[in-house]
Amino acid sequence: MLIPRTQFNECGLKANIPKNLSVIPPHSVELTKAKIAAISDIHGQIDIFKTLLAKHAITDKTGNWIFNDGHLVITGDIFDRGDNVTEILWFLFELEQQAELSGGKLHLLLGNHEVMVLTNDLRYLSDKYLHVEKLLNQSMTELYAPTSILGTWLRSKNVVLKLNDMVFLHGGLHPELVDKSLSLADINQLFRLYLSEKSLSEVDKNIAEYLHGIDGPIWYRGYFNEEQPIGFAKLIAHFNVSKFIVGHTSQEQIETRYKDKVIAIDSSIKYGNNGEILLIEGDKFYRGLLNGQKIQLL
Ligand SMILES: [Mn+2]
């Protein structure tokens, strides 16, 4: 049965929190031939987001999952800037369950703006949410506390996901992660424990702080610093991947870098004018445009 939206307040604070909300999602899925779609940096722009999903048959026109056994990956930054953040989260909360029932999967990965709001860095809230804070006399961080449905749900999420030979994440994997001998499972687990303020050994705490920092998976911008050599061979061998699909650093459209090893999918949805979704069918990659057109990228 679907978990309904809360009756209490908009983030589900002080509601009964269903136990399965804390189930840790998979960090790696070996697929056969299911379709994959990926989108990033939605920043509260629900209209563009829902239009892209409907135009590319991920959902029907009313927002219900029709992507069958497909995998939809959201590489972070739903929060901040725009003013329909809560609406997008509840929409995804329901869509995730619909996907599961159809044999598909919605993978919601955290970006730096999710973590900022959860950790009380509220510099980028839209005016609407400043108003909401005043009306409810609670900060956004309090509204997304671990005692709320959405707060619990978000804290269960990963920062990095591997599908087939592709890795998806908000910022990027720094080659230093290889020197630290971290697996994708380690990265997700240590990131999550630190975010949930669980007690960690001194060694793990140091690694978790690194992961939450400027070279960590949600902040790193090294793939966009001109095309300087940055140790992809090392990353590819260690994580056993061949493509790095990342958001965070805004582009006019979905594009590739480093001889197609990097696919940059932050298509500047944040400005509220336009946006794109990456569509992967077998070994073909397409830019899905807002008007429903598909343009082959690779
Ligand atoms: Mn970002």
UniProtKB/TrEMBL annotation:
<dbReference type="Pfam" id="PF00149">
    <property type="entry name" value="Metallophos"/>
</dbReference>
<dbReference type="InterPro" id="IPR004843">
    <property type="entry name" value="Calcineurin-like_PHP"/>
</dbReference>
<feature type="domain" description="Calcineurin-like phosphoesterase">
    <location>
        <begin position="35"/>
        <end position="249"/>
    </location>
</feature>
<dbReference type="InterPro" id="IPR029052">
    <property type="entry name" value="Metallo-depent_PP-like"/>
</dbReference>
<dbReference type="GO" id="GO:0016787">
    <property type="term" value="F:hydrolase activity"/>
</dbReference>
<protein>
    <submittedName>
        <fullName>Metallophosphoesterase</fullName>
    </submittedName>
</protein>
